[in-house]
Design brief:
Blueprint: H1 2-6, E1 14-18, H2 25-33, E2 40-42, E3 46-47, E4 62-63, H3 66-74, E5 78-84, E6 87-92, H4 93-101, E7 105-109, H5 112-122, E8 126-132, H6 136-146, H7 151-159, H8 161-165, E9 173-176, H9 180-206
Parallel strand pairs: 1-7, 1-8, 2-7, 3-4, 8-9
Antiparallel strand pairs: 3-6, 5-6
The protein binds adenosine-5'-diphosphate and guanosine-5'-monophosphate.
Length: 207
């Protein structure tokens, strides 16, 4: 009994991070992944959207044609996929399952509809975190500073914010990303807490 409790292995978890475009979720996720002690694996999504200034293929996304993406859908190669802002984005199955086999958590930075899909498929082992900027003005400011989208695309993304916010009730945690270092600490705290909780749940169920 003692040995079983002490040596209890936790199941790998899926950390799902969403939030409006410009909220800072990608920056936060990068910071998290750079903390080796957290031992979280990164999923790289496939997308049909064109590569943008400052991005690198196979680092930020795997950029593929629509035909290739549709072929992958037919072959059931995605855990989930969605159309977001007029382009297709999908989480590859292989990478995530390889990480699970190594008993490693995986981080998904995906949109709200994709997050719901993960909730349906992995309700028990996924944790949902929603990132918001402190206010709308700051969201616009950050989007402008990043200067990644043209004016039309920026407007299109901003028009979706209200809808995205309406999904917030599906999430376990909200991070108000005002100060980056504070937000990173909050994210880390969630991770440490949830990992312990996961172990306790497993114990409760089995003993
Ligand atoms: P998202 O992935 O949500 O679209 P990004 O991570 O690309 O957003 O961040 C958008 C912009 O805001 C980037 O220029 C980033 O450096 C900046 N940013 C992110 N978090 C903060 C923060 N807490 N304070 C100020 N600027 C931030
Ligand atoms: P961006 O074009 O700004 O990189 O991403 C646009 C939106 O697509 C963001 O909300 C981002 O989180 C989401 N996204 C990125 N990869 C995936 C994915 O694999 N699946 C889903 N559903 N959304 C994704």
């Amino acid at each position: 009994m003692w040995n079983r409790v002490v040596s209890k292995k936790k199941k790998p978890l899926i950390w799902v991070v969403s939030g409006p475009s410009g909220s800072g979720k990608t920056t936060l996720c990068r910071k998290l992944l750079s903390k080796k002690r957290l031992n979280i694996g990164r999923s790289i999504s496939f997308t049909t959207r064109p590569i943008k200034k400052g991005e690198r293929n196979h680092r930020d996304y795997i950029f593929i044609s629509k035909e290739e993406f549709l072929r992958k859908i037919r072959r059931a190669e995605f855990i989930e996929w969605k159309e977001v802002f007029g382009n297709l984005y999908g989480t590859p199955k292989k990478l995530a399952y390889d990480l699970f086999r190594k008993n490693k958590d995986v981080l998904l930075c995906i949109d709200v509809k994709g997050a719901l899909e993960i909730k349906k498929k992995f309700a028990k082992r996924a944790v949902f975190i929603f990132v918001v900027p402190p206010n709308e003005r700051e969201l616009i400011r950050r989007t402008k500073i990043r200067a990644r989208e043209d004016r039309g695309e920026m407007q299109r993304r901003l028009a979706c914010v209200k809808t995205e916010l309406s999904f917030v009730r599906e999430y376990d945690y909200i991070i108000v990303n005002d100060h980056l270092s504070k937000s990173v600490k909050e994210l880390e705290s969630i991770i440490y807490t949830k990992r312990l909780e996961n172990v306790l749940h497993t114990h409760r169920k089995n003993y």
